[in-house]
Amino acid sequence: xxxxxxxPLIILATVSAVHAQAPVPEKENPKDYxxxxxxxxxxxxxxxxxxxxxxxxxxxxxxxxQLNLMSQYPEFTFAQDQAIVYEMMEHYYPDICxxxxxxxxxxxxxxxxxxxxxxxxxxxxxESLVRQFLFGQKGTKERLGHYVRVAWQPDxxxxxxxxxxxxxxxxxxxxxxxxxxxxxxxxxxxxxxLDGTRVLGYSTPDEYVGTLDHHRTTEMSMINAQKMGVKxxxxxxxxxDHGGGPNPNDVAMISKLNASPHDVNVKTTNVEDxxxxxxxxxxxxxxxxxxLNSVFEGCYTTxxxxxxxxxxxxxLLFAAEKMSEIAVxxxxxxxxxTRDIGEAWKLALLNQTHDLLPGSGIGPIYKDAAKQYEEIxxxxxxxxxxSLQCIGLHxxxxxxxxxxxxxxxxxxxxxxxxxxEISASSLPPKMLATHGQEAVPVQVLKPASHDGNGExxxxxxxxxxxxxxxxxxxRIIPATGSSTLSxxxxxxxxxxxxxxxxxxxxxxINPATGNIARLFAKKAHREVFKGEGNFLVAxxxxxxxxxxxxxxYAGPAWDIGLTGVKWDxxxxxxxxxxxQGPVRATxxxxxxxxxxxxxxxxxxxxxxxxxxxxxxxxxHE
Length: 621
Description:
The chain is an alpha+beta fold. The strands form seven sheets. It has a five-stranded antiparallel sheet with strand order 1-29-28-27-26, with no helix packed on it.
């Protein structure tokens, strides 16, 4: 089967165990401190079970349990993150949803759902992170009446340095997280992003699930409070997923702890009030710059289809948004495709949930995700295609040759390769692409063939300086001997060793190893590599080694256990020139490792200062 190869940079960090902390000093009076508690049931949208089980078992029973507790204990508070759950309850269990909304009004049900899901933060692009907050805040406001001031991310596997700015612009002031467990980082910080934006970062005492007992509520809470020089600390309690959240015994412990002279004062909280109280007590918390990473590095290589589909969905939906907006604003289209784009984004954001996008769940959830991506691509492509067609209908394409409109949805002018299928009653064997006085060569990738209405061919050419958020009309015309072409060109050959070259770069392949023996930057007059580059290495990793190396070992999908054994794939390579034309030249390098086959297509395009490498792997190990 064909798979993409991803070669990660692995950074392993040593983290001490959470419970390896000093006991509470005896001289401290626990009643000088207050632990503000809120119930919580962390719900994984899909992990060791499928999405349907999360909705119809975990959500249904957890929310039913918590609503019953609120009827029994008027002071009980329960925090619920991930705005997608409200949509699911509204659709499948409207009575539960109505009760949730009612309890939010009495301040027992505490929405902390500023994001659509509790998403992975390192792999989605910035636009996706913005939309997590956009859909989360919008969904919460529509159903519960207000936006949320806290981001709730206790179970995700790391936090990028762009997050403080994104969260703050989404109305978030407080950022609750748990991982990575760093003994050197204070539990309460001002987390500062790349642009200087700050949010108040809060790491929970102990984990984000657990019981209310002396150890968690008094000992560990006082340790965090003393570290930060405050008297008030917040603690989460309850059991996540199939555990159903806090139970009556947990809630009953609040009065028992308050009655004990050896325990702190315990109060229920609605989260935001706690943070407001905290900042009245103290504001000068330490400032921490940059990203808060990393943990579970294996998640960046596991389930590569999820990573590829996520990026394809992000690019498609962002392009569909922009081109649809252009079509509507200019009155080329009657309406914006809100339903298609909105529903596609919701599914894309769901599949960015931690455990789904990181690849740390069971196999069936990725089959479910693949079907959901089919819907995402169908909806996104439909929205994009109709909008482009509406725009194209207002372009005057009258004139010589076959008209071809090239769109650029990006926010910068672009020069890049265009591939397209064209049709006409008859097509010439040699063609040019023209725009005004500009004329560039056309490379035929698939020769013209007859269909019922004429001829059809697949071509490639270099589109130059296509304007940002705009278009450029080219005409495909016959090439004649008098045609004046651009000076860009690409050359290729097999002697003295396989090479491809354009006006920017020269690439030479070692025919014995299959590696790039030379990459020469012609404009800078310098060798890019010292030695050979683009080489393949197989690295051995085992579960036993991962258990030794990872302080928070979670399983082979999360962690990488490199043993140090490696195999250089530098023998028995075959190299052939598979494509040579006026626009693009490609060398194919094929190598084998045991029973597996690795194929790399290394290409240069005339006029583009970039080497493209496309790899496919037939893996049988």
